[in-house]
Amino acid sequence: MTDDKTQSAKKMDVRYVANLARLNLTDGEVVEFQSQLDHIVEHFNQLRSLNVDDVEPMAHATPIQNVFRDDVVRPGLDRDVILNNAPQQSSGLVMVPTIVE
Amino acid sequence: MLNTLTIHEVLERLNCGECRSEDVVRSVLDAIRRTDGRIHGYLTLDETDALEQARAADLARRNGANGRLLGVPIAVKDVLNVRGQPCTCGSKILKGYVSPYDATAIARLRAEGAVFVGRTNMDEFAMGSSTENSAYGITRNPWDLDCVPGGSSGGSAAAVAADECVAALGSDTGGSVRQPASFCGCVGLKPTYGLISRYGLTAYASSLDQIGPITKDVRDAALLLQVMAGVDASDSTSLPEAVPDYQAALTKDLRGVTIGLPKEYFVGGLDSEVERCVQEAIEVCRQLGAKVVEVSLPHTRVAVDTYYIIAPAEASANLSRFDGVRYGFRAEGATDPLDLYKKTRAKGFGPEVKRRIILGTYVLSSGYYDAFYLRAQKVRTLIRRDFEAAFKHCSVILSPVAPTPAYRIGANSADPLQMYLGDIFTVPVNLAGICGLSVPCGMAAGKLPVGLQVMGPALGEEAILRTGYAFEQATTWHSQRSCIAEQNSGSQVRT
Lengths: 101, 495
Fold this sequence. Notes:
The structure holds two protein chains of two kinds. Chain A is mainly alpha-helical. Helix content of chain A is 36%, strand content 4%.
C-alpha cells in the first residue's frame, strides 16, 4: 500500500479503471470523464483532514448479524418467464458467444 | 377531479359508495392524457391493465373485501418490480425487460388492493438529482416547466404535483424521495434503513437504499408506510421490530416535542428564500408547542464526499449484473463474452452511470481502497455518531431539504460535482440509516415550492410524521396547486 501523498499526486487512469469495470469508452468520453472525475476526486481530499485512526468503519446502517431462514424448499420463478427476458435463448438455455473453443 | 384527491379522501368516497375505483383510475388516466405530454412524469402506462385492476377492486369491494388501499391507484418509480410490467430503471440497458415478480413492498400494497397505474420517470438507476439523466427524456417541474422536478424520483414527484396520480412510490439513496418532493411541493418520506424490504427494488447502493412514498399529505405517507413496513424473509437487512400504528401518532400539536436545529445547516450557500421559508416553519412549530434547541452535526461538511465514495462503490458492484447475458439489451457483434460485456455496457449505460461505475471501481481498487473507501466508511461512523449525540437533546431535527428550490433545466448538468453538492442536507440521513420527511413549507419568490426536512432517529417515524402532520395542518402549503394541477382540477367525475 502506497502512502496517501503519492496517491493524491497521481491522476486516475480513466481508461484502465473503465476496463476493470468492463466498460468500453470512446476517446471523447475518456477526455470528458477525466476532467470531471479528477475534479470530484480532488474534492474527496477533504476527508484527509479528519483523524479516523481509532474509528470503526461502518459497512451497514443496521447492526450486522446473521439472519437465517428455515431450510425448506420454496418455489422459484418460472423458467419460461425468466428466459423471455434473455436477449437470446435456445432449448431452455441462455445463449452467449463461444466461451471455449 | 377524483385524481386531485389524497388516498384517505379516495378511500372515504370508495367506502361510502360515492364513486368506484374505476372512476378514480379513469380520472387519473384522463389527467395523464391531458397534461403528461408537457411534464413527462410517466414512462409507461397500461390503461387496459389499470382499468382491469380497478374493476377487480370494485368487484372485490362489492363482495365484502376491505383492503386498506382497495381500489387506490398508485404510480410506481421505474426501479421497483411489478409483476408483468416493464422495469427499465430509466436505462437503455433494461429496455424490453418485463418484471417476473413483485417487489415485497408492491406485493404488500397489492394485497391491500392498490392499483398500479403506471411507471414513472427517473434518473438512470436512480443516479442523479434532477431526472435529467433518464435515457428516455427529462421530466419537467409542474410548477415551472423550465425547471427540473428534482431527482432521482422526479417522475413520481411531478406526477403527484400535477395531480396525474393519487400517490406514488420512489426510492431514496441520498435524497431521491425527499428532494423531488421538496422541488415539487409534495410530501416525501425516507424511512429508517431496513424498515421497508428492499426485495425487488433494483439495487443502486444497497447499504443506503430505501423505498419511500411521495404523497399529497402526511397522512397518506403514514398510510403507505403502514402497509409496506415490516420484516421480510427475502431481505435479511429488514428490521424485525414490530410496526407501530403511524396514524395514531398524527396529532395537531407539538407539545413535548423538542426540535433540534443543526447550526452547520444554516450557513453560507443556503438560498435566502429557502432559509426564510424554513425559519418561518420553525416559528410555526414553536407556536404549536415545540421547544427549539441548537444541536451540532459537525461532520456535515464531509457528508457529500463520504456519500459519493460509498454509493458509487456499491453501485459499481451492483451494476455488474448488467452484462447483456440474462436480460435487457445486448450489443451486436461481440466475439467473446468479455467483448459482449464491454460493448453492451458501453452502449447500454448513460454518462452519469458510467461516471459512477468508474468512480466506484476506482475507490475500491487496489492501492486506493484504504485512502478512499475505508476512510469514507470510518467517516460514516462519525456522521452516525453526530446524529446519536444530537438526538440525546431533541426528538426531531429540522432543516431545509435542499439548499435551493428547483433550478432551471440544464443549470447543473454539465458539472456533476455542482449537482452532488446540492445533496448536502439529504445524504447524512442515508449514511446514518435514520429517517427523514420532506413537507412543503413555503414558496420561494412566490412561485417554487420549498420543503422542510424533519429528521428522526432510527425508527423515529412516529415523531417525524407527527411533527410533519402538525406543521402541515397548521399551514396551507400542502394544499397549494401547481399550474399543471390547476389544469387537471376540472370536474371530471363520472357516474
